[in-house]
Design a protein that fits this description.
mainly alpha, Serine Threonine Protein Phosphatase 5, Tetratricopeptide repeat, 11 helices, transmembrane helix, membrane, transmembrane, TPR repeat, TPR_rpt
């Protein structure tokens, strides 16, 4: 086998150079390999996979509901809720870092609301708010679920918490106005609807709600005046009755009997 010959170099020098090159290769190749392996994207964890599948099913449910296929919509929402639960029951470390955990609570509560499970939605939202107490979407959804159960006062409180973190949330402003109307607080409802229209002036639905609430506020003054007149009349009647009936009887009862002139008592 022919040998490699390098002119001008001795055999010992050649071996030394080869050894040095071998050492460099041993040091460099693992480092290059390490760089290559870490550059590949990591596969999603189980919780992320469950969440992604749940989102797809929720979207399918929305599409089916929009087309009037309520059976398919309900089936999709139920399957989505099951996957959201599987995500929550998995290791949520990775999805929590990317806000996926927050979206899981939002998505699950949304699906529950679509199914009319408002009590279950409130439980889900409370669990989410324990971790994300300033998320306006969780507060809005909670207010909506409370509104649907007839708890209008607490619904307004939830909407206020949502607006404290996003004062220009048009949807929340409209929802708050709806709850205030149910409470008979038409003036504050008008304020809320006007704020919503300022953000979205093209909303005919909000404009209609505003007009209805304004009619009630215009009727509040005459009703209050009539009530005041009635109270005054009743009070006046009571005073007149006291003067005409009660007081003379009381005076008569306090009068000292006067003896008739010339009347004497016989002594025994």
């Amino acid at each position: 086998m022919p040998k490699i010959h390098i002119p001008g170099m001795k055999r010992g020098q050649i071996l030394g150079i080869l050894a040095l090159l071998l050492i460099c290769a041993i040091a460099v190749i693992p480092a290059m390999g390490a760089n290559v392996t870490t550059s590949y994207p990591q596969a999603p964890d189980a919780a992320t996979n469950y969440y992604n599948s749940a989102v797809q099913l929720t979207t399918s449910g929305d599409n089916a509901a929009a087309s009037g296929d309520n059976a398919t919509a309900s089936k999709s929402y139920l399957e989505a809720i099951a996957l959201y639960d599987m995500a929550l029951n998995s290791n949520t470390t990775e999805i929590q870092e990317s806000d996926g955990l927050l979206y899981t609570y939002q998505g699950k509560s949304y699906a529950q609301i679509q199914l009319g499970n408002y009590t279950g939605a409130i439980d889900t939202l409370n669990a989410g708010l324990a971790l994300y107490p300033t998320d306006e979407h969780l507060w809005n959804n909670k207010g909506y679920a409370q509104f649907k159960t007839g708890d209008y006062k607490d619904a307004v409180t939830s909407y206020n918490n949502a607006l404290a973190n996003d004062s220009n949330n048009t949807l929340t402003l409209v929802n708050k106005g709806d709850a205030l109307v149910k409470l008979g607080n038409y003036q504050d409802a008008v304020t809320s609807y006007k704020a919503a229209l300022a953000n979205n002036p093209d909303s005919n639905e909000t404009a209609t709600k505003l007009a209805a609430a304004e009619k009630f506020t215009s009727a509040e003054l005459p009703v209050s005046l009539i009530a005041l007149v009635i109270v005054v009349i009743i009070a006046g009647a009571g005073v007149a009755y006291y003067i005409l009936k009660k007081r003379p009887v009381q005076q008569k009862a306090n009068e000292v009997p006067v003896k008739k002139a010339g009347s004497k008592k016989n002594k025994k």
